[in-house]
């Protein structure tokens, strides 16, 4: 046993605090696509951000949903400084996530949620 490693699984005294989550849901989900792979599937989502400069895109799983539903929120982070809204094309962002076959076994609906709408697809 190493006395320098905490037994309770806590953080060391040199660990930095967890960063603040500045992400918010993307404004509108414009496309949802699920492509099968040999090991499961890749879920692709396209969203239209509220303004230009969206970054740190993430499809974040919504916990504690119905076991038949796999639900994600499309989250983005905007720059602190004001940015123009620009054209819809300049605000279009994409994110993807990989899901295993075992995880998809019981899933019947895959849903991605934005601030103003949601898209879903049904599995056979």
Key phrases:
mainly beta; five-stranded mixed sheet; 3% helix; three-stranded antiparallel sheet; single chain; 1 helix; 124 residues
Task: Describe the protein in words.
Strands 1, 4, 5, 7 and 8 form a five-stranded mixed β-sheet that branches. The protein has one domain (24-80, 89-122). Strand 2 (28-37) and strand 3 form a beta hairpin. The protein is flat. The protein has 124 residues and is mainly β. The chain has one helix at residues 101-104; strands at residues 24-25, 28-37, 40-48, 55-61, 69-77, 92-100, 109-113, 118-122. The chain is built from one helix and eight strands.
Q: Quaternary status of these chains?
A: single chain
- Spell the H/E element sequence: EEEEEEHEE
| Measured distance between first and last alpha carbons | 51 Å
Helix content: under 10%
Nearest-integer average pLDDT: 90
Overall spatial form:
flat
What proportion of the residues form beta strands (DSSP E)? Answer: over 45%
From the alpha carbons, calculate the radius of gyration and give it in angstroms: 18 Å
Summarize the structure.
This protein has one helix spanning 101-104, and strands at 24-25, 28-37, 40-48, 55-61, 69-77, 92-100, 109-113, 118-122. It has 124 residues and is mainly beta.
């Amino acid at each position: 046993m190493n006395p320098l490693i905490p037994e309770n699984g806590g953080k060391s005294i040199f660990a930095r605090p967890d960063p603040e989550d500045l992400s918010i849901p993307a404004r509108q989900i414009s496309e949802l696509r699920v492509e099968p792979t040999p090991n499961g599937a890749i879920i692709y989502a396209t969203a239209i951000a509220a303004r230009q400069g969206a970054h740190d895109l993430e499809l974040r799983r919504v916990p504690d949903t119905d076991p038949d539903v796999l639900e994600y929120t499309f989250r983005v982070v905007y720059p602190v400084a004001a940015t123009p809204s620009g054209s819809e094309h300049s605000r279009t962002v994409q994110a993807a996530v990989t899901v295993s076959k075992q995880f998809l076994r019981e899933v019947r609906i895959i849903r991605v949620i934005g601030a103003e709408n949601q898209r879903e697809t049904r599995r056979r």
